[in-house]
């Protein structure tokens, strides 16, 4: 037998912004596809029109592009199995439901919503823990298994509303091998007679998903753990449709937990826990009030996509070594489904920040300068590319996000209007003030306006004043920048220029006495 081509799919439903768990699913699919030389598909599962949210599909495409997850086939690039939106594939599914009816694996059900409610109420009253339409209850309902054949025909011919349900066997073990969890065995009594076709002629998720995975020749289904309970039903569908020999391999990814491990990280947690749960900012409407809402995104919060992806890759997978920093190409080379964990992964806010700091510092000054320049333009401040590069160069060890450059580097453009009080109360005195004036006087004579040169001049001046540099250094920093801490002080003075430093020193001495 020839090796099967690896074809994986990311199959989100456009019901809102993509949660980071969804991005992780897309990422693992992508890593496996690239690692094994296969294809990554994007299919939009929009059969549930009630949950359709405008803008969600675009959001998904934009988020994947920002993350560097490239779609080979599907919504976006197109491909031989187009269309890739299930709503546009609607006419394709009916024949498979009909096939299941013809082979006795599915049936028509004519029950009205009221009849279904009555059935549930009756079962609840009888203390049945989980009332379901299944191999036992179906015998009391109005369907093509209980009604006489001619009545069924009459109903169908007369256009009576119906759904098509899968006829799940009563006593059978359904088993399949999950690439992450090993053998999964479920008794068919735990599976209900799921609806495959709705009364509006739309397939449900279950039917459409199996038909499409089959037609699109998907080799691996990698998805979140929340789909594990549906997998036995999907196995039955493959079997009854005669597709079991090409059934994809399943891999159900571990849950993502809140940082404290108390439960699943949900779409609503981001706002409550103070970090984004979406890759990009989302502008939506509140489900209850209909008011416009904005949910934070990693991109807008200043995370670099490399950091976000590196962090996500480790939420449920590890390379089996100490290495923590992986570019996308390195992830592709190192990834394997075998190293994906069964146990849930805890979200770690500090870790994603740590990754961001790492990737930020790894960037060249020329790459980082535009972030500062953009903020300066916004504030109407002119600055050369060269100066911006110098500033981000001294600042990058001290910031976590590109937007911090402006906040932290303001004093390069604006003289301080206040001085760190703690430092002043401990380090400022008339002798120090006089020494700083002496330094201001000496600055124009600095032979070399380099960090080394200005430091040498400072040491000399302090010696002449009878002071040790350690007694004045902090006061010098506060007088020039206003802040008690910052990047290398003499580098800072070089960037500011000796004239500006001298002016600021005199202003500080006048202000502080
Ligand atoms: N449409 C499903 C979702 O939104 C896809 C599940 C699957 O991958 O089979 O998660």
From TrEMBL:
The keyword Membrane does not apply. The keyword Signal does not apply. A motif ('HIGH' region) lies at residues 12-22. ATP binds at residue 267. Keywords: Aminoacyl-tRNA synthetase, ATP-binding, Cytoplasm, Ligase, Nucleotide-binding, Protein biosynthesis. It is found in: Cytoplasm. Pfam families: Anticodon_2, tRNA-synt_1c. GO terms for molecular function: glutamate-tRNA ligase activity. InterPro entries: aa-tRNA-synth_I_cd-bd, aa-tRNA-synth_I_codon-bd_sub2, aa-tRNA-synth_I_CS, aa_tRNA-synth_I_cd-bd_sf, Glu-tRNA-ligase_bac/mito, Glu/Gln-tRNA-synth, Glu/Gln-tRNA-synth_Ib_cat-dom, GluQ/Sye. Residues 372-508 form the Aminoacyl-tRNA synthetase class I anticodon-binding domain. Residues 5-273, 297-354 form the Glutamyl/glutaminyl-tRNA synthetase class Ib catalytic domain. Its EC number is 6.1.1.17. It catalyses: tRNA(Glu) + L-glutamate + ATP = L-glutamyl-tRNA(Glu) + AMP + diphosphate. A motif ('KMSKS' region) lies at residues 264-268. Catalyzes the attachment of glutamate to tRNA(Glu) in a two-step reaction: glutamate is first activated by ATP to form Glu-AMP and then transferred to the acceptor end of tRNA(Glu). Monomer. NCBIfam families: gltX_bact (TIGR00464). This is Glutamate--tRNA ligase. It comes from Hymenobacter jeongseonensis.
